[in-house]
Recover the amino acids of this structure.
């Protein structure tokens, strides 16, 4: 829930410009010290309404010129519905890019909607105080360590600790079998292996390359989890240059909650921009997106700091691969501003089925 809130940020007025092209600035500044750029502004999401959020983009080198700059992005947000989110995410690229350390940690408290589990529940359940509304307080911390094993292959371990406390349940939710089975206060402690093949030029602003990733996290009861379950995640991203300032990218993603996965942690279609957080959830979600990115050219032929994107996608959900239900489409467009070299702030308007949202954050959507 935290990352879904955080992606709804808007660029503030603290941006600066230089006369050099983005690629020239990236080369000249890749070994500079700490760079800090704050931002703050309003946005809107389907689940939270009007949101005011702010934070900062902090980047710094840990491994010299040949290594990508490490990032730390602290964020906070407060909405007109009374939702509060505070947290941070980042990636550390250690010397020589032989080791990468990722982390994400969030706390949030928000009034949300629970429609049930499955496509039919998400489609047919009317939204309202007596059918879907409840209060959620949650936190999570998800670190991982990846070691370059051979060429572009990374292997490592990921962990996930999170807790959700649902209160003020509506009458329909109080009788929901998934809620009754797991309960309203759910604790998860998970750990497991990960593998990645990553040839992207820059992870947060890829214009060329391929990414294949998979991780399997186990949440056993003996570690303290409320239920015994596991989560399998697979993804494939590829980026192809289409000409000066143009990139075509696509993303295929699967998330599968195995065994006794709690309702609080089931995969959701909200990875598609434009859908309400948690409205469509089930044990298995499969989605795909394609995005065309265009960076404008200046009069001298160099890349400017401004750009636009167009995207479209679809997702399907079910309890297993054999039961995947009807596809849920989305489409939209967005604006890009290069806040720091090869590090963008994005403002996307996404349209789903009977919902829409404005999502702003650092780095690309994928």
């Amino acid at each position: 829930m935290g990352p879904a809130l955080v992606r709804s940020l808007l660029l503030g007025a603290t941006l600066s410009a230089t006369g050099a092209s983005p690629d020239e600035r990236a080369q000249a500044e890749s070994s500079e010290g700490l760079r800090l750029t704050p931002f703050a502004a309003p946005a809107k999401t389907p689940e939270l309404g009007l949101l005011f959020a702010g934070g900062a983009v902090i980047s710094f080198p840990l491994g010299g010129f040949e290594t990508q700059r490490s990032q730390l992005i602290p964020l906070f947000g407060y909405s007109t519905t009374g939702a509060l989110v505070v947290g941070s995410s980042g990636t550390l690229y250690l010397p020589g890019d032989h080791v990468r350390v990722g982390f994400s940690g969030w706390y949030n408290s928000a009034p949300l909607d629970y429609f049930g589990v499955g496509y039919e529940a998400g489609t047919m359940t009317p939204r309202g105080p007596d059918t879907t509304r409840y209060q959620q307080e949650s936190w999570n911390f998800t670190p991982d360590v990846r070691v370059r094993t051979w060429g572009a292959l990374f292997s490592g371990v990921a962990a996930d600790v999170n807790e959700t406390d649902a209160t003020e349940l509506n009458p329909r939710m109080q009788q929901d079998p998934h809620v009754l089975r797991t309960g309203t206060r759910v604790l998860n402690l998970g750990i497991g292996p990960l593998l990645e093949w990553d040839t992207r030029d820059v992870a947060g602003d890829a214009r060329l390359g391929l990414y294949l990733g998979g991780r399997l996290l186990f949440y056993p009861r003996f570690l303290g989890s409320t239920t015994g379950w596991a989560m399998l995640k697979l993804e494939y991203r590829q980026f192809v240059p289409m000409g000066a300032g143009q990139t075509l990218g696509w993303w295929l993603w699967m998330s599968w909650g195995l065994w006794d996965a709690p309702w609080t942690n089931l995969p959701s279609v909200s990875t598609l921009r434009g859908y309400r957080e948690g409205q469509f959830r089930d044990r298995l979600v499969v989605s795909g997106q394609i995005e065309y990115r265009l960076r404008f050219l200046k009069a001298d032929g160099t890349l400017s700091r401004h750009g636009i994107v167009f995207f479209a996608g679809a997702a399907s959900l079910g309890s297993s691969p054999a039961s995947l239900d009807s596809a849920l489409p989305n489409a939209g467009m967005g604006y890009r501003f290069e806040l720091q070299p090869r590090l963008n702030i994005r403002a996307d308007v996404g349209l789903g089925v009977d919902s829409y949202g404005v999502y702003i954050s650092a780095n690309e959507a994928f």
